[in-house]
Design a protein that fits this description.
The chain is α/β, with parallel strands linked by helices. Strands 2-1-3-8-7-4-5-6 form an 8-stranded parallel β-sheet, sandwiched between helices. Helix 3 packs parallel to helix 4. It is globular.
């Protein structure tokens, strides 16, 4: 039986330094997402967008944490509801802090789930290691149970870091690198992809993510793609994935039959050119 695809947007830019990524869900829909799903014969329903409240507590090390946690709490409930109905959630960001709402919902429903995080950055800071306080640099740490706790106070289940894989990294802070290693996360940098090739990297990533016997949450940050091809992101890093490497990663994740849900985040149409990203 074909699964229903639930599209859930989050108009979130509170975790990022640059504004505009809150318009990402609209831009992705404007690129005919729903029409293309229909053309492929897939069933879908659009559950609309979550909009953060206008104010809340904030600190230098955790900027806008209360608004982010409140919006992500609602996202957590939406994803839980979709999973309970047997649907496949597709979460449209918004900055990457939205993963702190979506991933724990899947970890709650599938206790042995793994995670493949495709990103130019580590996103594994907490309130002690961060140099900026921007919370889109923290969600990978949060969903692996490594904090900061204030970012996801509603979460009671997390991904085992030994079944978490970072793919495409090329801009990781030194403290963040140390935290990734201590947690036991597997990291495939852009150098690894150049050396090994994307097919082998993805085969190994899938094997690690499913080693616990469960499916895979996929969290895809568009800045993983080289900015020459995808300029509409807030934190571009040169020499990233080619478009074909990005498509191949998605194709292999589909073909393995283990994907449980997906985030597509950090699309910033203000910085884009003709909706290219």
């Amino acid at each position: 039986m074909q699964k229903m695809i639930d599209i859930i947007g989050v108009q979130m830019d509170l975790g990022a330094l640059k504004r505009g990524v809150s318009m990402g869900p609209l831009a992705i829909r404007h690129a005919d997402l729903c029409e293309k799903l229909s053309d492929m014969g897939l069933l879908w329903r659009d559950k609309g967008d979550i909009i953060p409240v206008s104010n809340g507590a904030s600190t230098k090390q955790l900027k806008n944490y209360e608004q982010i946690a409140e919006a992500n709490g609602r996202l957590y409930d939406e994803v839980c509801e979709s999973l309970e109905k047997g649907a496949f959630p597709v979460v449209l960001g918004g900055d990457h802090s939205v993963a702190a709402g979506s991933v724990p919902a899947v970890a709650n429903a599938y206790r042995n789930a793994g995670l493949i995080w495709i990103d130019a950055h580590g996103d594994f800071n907490d309130d002690h290691s961060t140099s900026s306080g921007n919370m889109h640099g923290m969600p990978f740490s949060v969903v692996c149970g490594c904090g900061p706790d204030k970012m996801a106070p509603y979460a009671n289940s997390f991904i085992d870091p030994k079944h978490a894989v970072l793919v495409g990294a090329r801009d990781i802070d030194v403290p963040e690198s140390r935290r990734l290693k201590e947690a036991g996360v597997t990291v495939f940098t852009i150098h690894d992809i150049d050396r090994m090739g994307m097919p082998l990297v993805m085969r190994e990533a899938i094997e690690i993510a499913t080693a616990g016997g469960g499916g895979i949450y996929v969290s895809f940050d568009m800045d993983a793609v080289t900015p020459e091809a995808a300029p509409g992101v807030g934190t571009p890093v040169h020499s990233g994935l080619t478009v074909r490497e990005a498509f191949l990663a998605m194709e292999m994740l589909y073909q393995c039959g283990k994907a449980l849900a997906i985030d597509m985040v950090e699309v910033n149409p203000i910085l884009d050119g003709r909706n290219r990203t």
